[in-house]
Design a protein that fits this description.
Length: about 230
């Protein structure tokens, strides 16, 4: 039995990946050359610094002022989050049930605090005992730092945590921290070895989380998936 749950945020709890894609394409165009869809896919779950460097390299320009591009991107993302952010199906009810049952929960997101707080507030900050952002640890995902820190704040070992992640970087980070991972990548071929497949467990990444309001559900699903 798990002692706590740690959630990735973008693409897992909130349907924000299309917004991040639009923001990344906009930044790449402002640098001089729109990213290809294949290159944009490499930015999913990555840090802002990585994304900015990739955009600059693709455009053939030097990244002289990362702070400028951070302001450019984050202002755009805050606007989209305030106007267009939505939850994944059933997430609101599920989180309320977990909270009521006393399951400790945390968010571990590579998104920097400046942008993440808007999405955390949208989800309900009071539902989580801890939230950790990519700019609050020495290294973001795929390094395990963010999951080590989230587990520490919850007062449990990472190995006692059940983690939900949609990106390869996030799955690798959680696995490196020795957590149990349920992966819900958009494409099944992007599932990282060692992570349990959301599709295999419950039939798809569009699973309505309203049906899964207790840890026993996931323990049973993982046991049957072995």
């Amino acid at each position: 039995m798990f002692s706590a749950m740690i959630w990735d945020m973008d693409g897992t709890l909130v349907d924000s990946e299309p917004l991040w894609a639009r923001g990344t394409f906009a930044m790449s165009e402002a640098m001089g050359k729109r990213l290809t869809p294949e290159l944009q896919a490499q930015t999913v779950g990555a840090s802002f610094s990585y994304t900015a460097r990739l955009c600059a390299e693709h455009a053939g320009v030097e990244l002289f002022d990362e702070a400028y591009w951070r302001r450019f991107a984050f202002e755009n993302m805050r606007k989209m989050f305030s106007e267009e952010l939505t939850l994944r199906p059933g997430v609101a009810t599920m989180l309320q049930r977990f909270k009521a049952s006393g399951v400790p929960m945390a968010i571990a997101t590579n998104t920097e605090r400046e942008v993440a707080d808007a999405a955390i507030a949208f989800l309900g900050a009071e539902l989580f005992q801890a939230t950790v952002c990519g700019d609050e640890v020495p290294q973001g995902k795929p390094a395990p730092d963010i999951y080590h820190r989230a587990a520490e704040l919850l007062g449990v070992a990472p190995s006692q945590c059940l983690v939900f992640e949609d990106s390869q970087a996030g799955m690798r980070a959680a696995l490196a921290a020795k957590a149990t991972v349920v992966g819900l990548p958009e494409r099944e071929e992007d599932l990282v070895q060692g992570a349990a497949s959301m599709r295999a467990l419950v039939g798809g990444i569009d699973f309505d989380f309203d049906q899964a309001g207790d840890l026993a559900f996931w323990c049973d699903a993982l046991q049957m998936g072995d």
